[in-house]
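Hello Y.,

Per our agreement to keep a running log of every chain we model this quarter, I'm adding this entry. I've kept the format consistent with earlier entries: sequence first, then predicted structure.
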Amino acid sequence: MPHTKRSFTIRLIAGGCVWLLSTLSASARQTNQAMPLNEQAVRERADALIAQMTPQEKVGQLCQHFYFQMFPDMTHAANDALEHGQAGALLFVTDPAEINRLQRIAIDKSRLKIPLLFAFDVIHGLRTIFPVPLAMAASWDPKMVEAAQSVAAAEARAVGVHWAFAPNVDIARDPRWGRIVEGAGEDPYLGAAMAAAQVHGFQGPYLGSPGHVISGPKHFAGYGAALGGRDYDEVNLSDNELWNVYLPPFKAAVDAGAGNIMSAYMGLNGVPAAANTWLLTQVLRQTWGFKGFIVTDAGAVAGLQIHGLAHDTQDAAVRALKAGVDMEMAVPSRPAVMPTLIAALDAGKISSAELDDAVRAVLAAKIRMGLFEQPFVDEKKAEAILNDPAHLETARTAAARSAVLLRNDNGTLPLARTIKSIAVIGPLADAPRDMLGPWVFPQNKPPSVSVLAALKAKVGNSIRIDYSEGVRMPSRRVPSIFEMFEPPQVRPPLDETAEITRAVGLARGADVAVLVLGEAQDMIGEDASRSSFDLPGRQQELLDAIVATGKPVVVLLMTARPLDLKETKAAAIMNIWYPGSAGGSAVADLLFGDAVPGGKLPFTWVRNIGQVPLIYAHLTSHDPGNAERRYWNDSNEPRYPFGYGLSYTTFEYSNLRIEPASVTPGEPVTVTVDVKNTGARVGDEVAQLYIHQRSGTSARPVRELKGFERVTVQPGRTRTIRFVLQPQTLSYWSAANGTWVQDESAFDVWVGGSSAAALASGFEIKKR
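Predicted structure for the entry above:
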């Protein structure tokens, strides 16, 4: 049956039943619908509004304007649009009183009393900041991630935000790209699991759920494959990579019910995403059946001229609308061009039906969110929700579960309670703002505690703590675009040479040195790609000097990309990422064993930048035995493989069983394995299942993640873990015939604690 463009059919499975509501019930006519609204009722209500709207009113619904009070010039276009009823949504307002004021203007100026959608970059929290998304992916714990984004949604909705520009589900296989921090790393299977978890967290069981917001997965599609890892650069992807690697997380987000999709800035294979009919209509709507609305990334419609695609602003707007765009995100540097559609309609360049389709998509979102009934936010309740102490506890758990222990020689960690002194050293040791990471905004008043402050609170007077900044974190060569929201802190100069000497003295006089090193929060994220994985500034010199003292050295890394520590001999290394509002407390828990690290790397940790890109799921070359000689001057192995991470205990895998050993196409395969805790501490392990298809329509990667489960195992105990490989899990998109296939083939199976798992078996798919 052919797909009808922008039809709105929602199926909600609740308690095993499918609820099809034919009318708007009284209980549903409230802000945050008590139950999902029926598709037919939503469409009829939207169409009734559309029938009364002028072309100017319709086009106004397709415009989202940037509104930020700190910069009056930036709000001029938004204010003008509001006064003329030409705004469908506003971006960047989080003050509930201001949201109510602006909403009142929009409703009063709208002949049909159409409310605004308010949107914001709720990437990993609003007031309570969670670990950055890549860190949460390192937890390999979708339920925890869902809980975190549910808290973020509750805080956003409390202040009047209806829509989050998240999650970022871009696959990133080049860690030079700064926005790797926002996604789930290099693997499509892990990425899909994290995409679905975040959509469920933001939206709840259905669009319009109480205390939840619209989720807007981004950036559709392929943005993470920018050439050289350079943000905003062009993307050229094969069909094989696009369908098998970059699209699966978006498909998972759509299947999870995402109400919005954001198109990307860049050109994909020569066609900018905001005018890519194949992407937005053929794939997203027709093939996948997406029912929500599509918004562009900032200024992307006007950007069609800059790309050299459109010859003027009206041409850009027409191309975007016809490709499937429903709403344009305008920014001060690129004002809205969708208003040119009014003249385009008069000239016959677009049809009324095309315009109505886009307007219907936007109105349907507002109807489902209950905004026509209760457009305003309860200002009195907002602060209580924002300051709920349970939110910080959830953030503390998330930070602890996200940490990845990379090295722990001689059981250096956890630290013994009997030690007398700790030297806490490094430019990020007492840096509460950096703990939060990027995409955090001061107007939301996010709390934070540094590693130094948290350690002092942890040990009180029982352990002496000495502190040295060691060296100063250098400034970026080019200022970040986010400095307009958060100007850099002006600090007194530091004599780094003298401070390194002082730090060495503190380390010599301590039982253990804890170094907190890495990258500042503005060194990663959007507009923050990097051409080096070296520690910024003189941090490597500081690290080498402290290690040379011979004292036990624990390195805590704040980063979201692999860093090259130059063969350091530090006894322990833990990646704490940018752990969020409660990150300092979580790190203190981890250092003293009150929490046990169980996170695993969501990307391959390269030895140096010359190895990029280096992925575990690569194809076998014609001469695989020559792999060790690919670089004759250096090792060809990563520093740490994908999925790697240690614990304070050890695990043993055994008794791998596969049933049945032979299946026909379309039948599932069950894999079970025993995981034993062979150490003396309770710990979490992430059991990972990888497959390799030996032959088929196309060549397949040497290993592919196809299952994982994080489990807690008591000392000496064994957990049996069961995976089911469904037919769709064993299928792939083949460029040989341009479709999805499931081949008859022998399959290798590995299960273990990383992509280097050794415990192996296999099965076959045979003819019927």
